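The aim of this short unit is practical: by the end, you should be able to scan a pair of folded records and say something sensible about each. We start with the first protein, listed as its amino acid sequence and then its structure tokens.
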Amino acid sequence: MRAQFFDGFDFAHFKYSIVAIEHPEQFFNIESFGLHPIMYNEACLRGYTCVFGFNDDKQLTLFKLLTNNNGMEPPAIDGIAPVAFNSPAGDLKYELQHPLDYTGSILIGNGFIDSYFVPFGFQLPHAFKKVFELTFHNGLFVHVENRTDDALRLRIEYEEPVNAKKKMQIKLGNIMGKTKEYGFDDDTIAEYMDLSYDTKYMF
């Protein structure tokens, strides 16, 4: 598995990446649109990627969906048909204004620091120079907290990232059975769960 294509979030006139979701199972379900994507590229195992933001009423909104429908006729979403488009997620693009009713928080980040790259799944929140926590109630944006200092503290207190070869060995469990990933032990990760909540990363 390769590092994965991020979902985007438009915030304060800048483009961010979504790096953690408090309740991922409640945030977005592509099958609710009648789409059944398959892996189109190893960089997007889910077969879809999204761009979110706020509408004029501060409601969490899906603005763009890149995906595929496994070769089947794609449905319209909110009366909008997709257009042909080539991306790691597939061959379809939807331009939307679809409101969502998610309750919970997400972390968004930008300014990725290359030395913290990991070759599997989504990158971790502390690998970004700027990190914000956005909180929603029934989809309405209710709070923002700057988590940039938390991310910096993690970078200072975590061990330096190991090289790509060692990351691969660690991920595959080939280092004497130790439960340690990318140089970060379980105690260190647990100490900073206030930053990532109980988020279960998708990959």
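Turning to the second protein, read its sequence before its tokens, just as you did above.
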Amino acid sequence: MEYASILIDFILHVDRHLETFVQNYGTWVYALLFMIIFVETGVVVMPFLPGDSLLFVVGAMCGVGLLSFPLACAVLLVAAVLGDQTNYSIGRYFGPKVFQWEDSRFFNKRAFDKAHAFYETYGGITIVLARFMPFLRTFVPFVGGVAAMSRAKFTAYNVLGAVIWVLGVVTAGYFLGSLPWVKANLDKIIWAMIFVPGLIVIYGSWKAHRQSAGPAAAD
């Protein structure tokens, strides 16, 4: 429980913790930033680490001169791309071994074919949009690997999504983070960046479930 409370406190007050880390360890903060983003996007069991809020706070810290904007963006971009690529590779490697394909009662060939077709058709936009959705950005690349989305297509959209996500959110923090209103309400902004996208995902899933259940109920 102690570790959980420490993690929650770090997520909700990431600005204070990062500032303290910079004061104590200097440039080692870039290694910490790389690790957080890489693990959040690359390890499917760690979707709760801060993503959007961390990028925004990093941008704000760059705006006041505590961090280098070009270096921070470069480190975060590499971490985001490698994280998704690792997650995809894990799904691509372990998916067949977990399901054991047609020999397993857990494998549904029709469901797999649908997932594969979906990712080949809509996987690109899904990968890009998922960057802005907590939890989804951790699971989408893994499922893309399990669904055997082509690596070349995944890599192209992985890089595109990382560029839009990292540069977009860090730049927003760079220009907005020093505004008095933002500084006074940063904790609320962090809460919003965590929960609002999550609520959108939940609502979308609920709506999709209702639409899929409707025809079945009618039959």
